[in-house]
Amino acid sequence: MKQKTNRIFHRIDHLEVIKKLSQQTQQIIFFAIHNLQFSIWIFILFFSFYLLDGGSVFSQEEIMIEPSVIERKTQPRDFLELSVTINNQSNSTVRLYPLIKDISGPRQDEKIEKINSLASWIEISRGRIEIPPGVSKEIPFSVRVHFNALPGKYYTTISFVEGSTFPQAQENASKYQQPTLLLNIDVQENIIEKAEIKRFQTTKNIFLKFPIEFILEIKNIGNREIIPLGLIHIYDKKGKEIAAIDLPSKTISAGESNTLNIFWQGEKGFGRYKAFLFAEYGKSSGGTLQDTVYFWILSWKFLILFTLGILVLLYLLIIFIIRKPKKQFQVSSPKKTLDLRKRI
Predict the structure, then answer these.
(1) Residue 58, domain member (yes or no)
(2) Contact 149, 191 (CB under 8 A)
(3) Which of 260, 209, 199, 271 is nearest to 234 (CA)?
(4) N or C: which terminal CB in the chain sees fewer CB atoms within 10 Å?
(5) What is the pTM (predicted TM-score) of this model?
(6) How far apart are the first and last CA of the chain?
(7) Distance CA 137, CA 91 (A)
């Protein structure tokens, strides 16, 4: 045995790699070679202790995790129910502990760490997971998105680390590569695009000449600025569309109102008209605005003739009222009464 050891030592002594090592390292290697039997027993003892302590580490080929990546799109306050399956393809029972670690997020701030920490949103059993050889086990977990979460992508890992205790698993996680699930949560911005018409009317009910002025007030009750675009359709008394007026392109900020003055410059008109407003706004929701208003267009000639006609009718009515009572209440002549007495 000693002769074989001396041969090995003689060969290793001539290796260039050994010569490049430090003197202390060379001494350790030479001691291990000269005391080969002692080194073998130390290795066996250490390995047995390691197995009894539950610190054995399995390769990723022996412990399979499916899926390895989970991606979801969510909104603040959402609750996701997810799961992962662990398949033990080794020849012995494995004891695993889930360890969660944030990778990145839209913002790193100690004051709002919980708000923007995907790891803090995850709810999973932190107890030991035992999986016999050749067995697959489904591990459920959930994600409760913070109600004030900033929009953006959040990345975290859930590693299932071998260890007899949780501290042992934490120690192994820093030393060995473990079966790991990559979780990607994309928090969508909670966009609200909503508007309402506060006022749609003409400046007067009756117009004697053009232009016709409309007043349109729109309030943005969403959380994103909008630009309403549309038309005011004008219809005559027969229901025929005779004009269409474009709305001015104006940006309305979130929570604010905007008043628009819109003019219709027609050539001529007479009678009752209807104005129908139809507008669209927003990029995602595609909201619409609709309203209707009625108005009159009259000419000076018509008003003069109409006024004269009313005056003539009033004059004739007054004359009729004055003359009519004289005919109804006329008294009989006294002479005719005397003649009748004489005959009797």
Answers:
(1) no
(2) no
(3) 271
(4) C
(5) 0.52
(6) 187
(7) 16
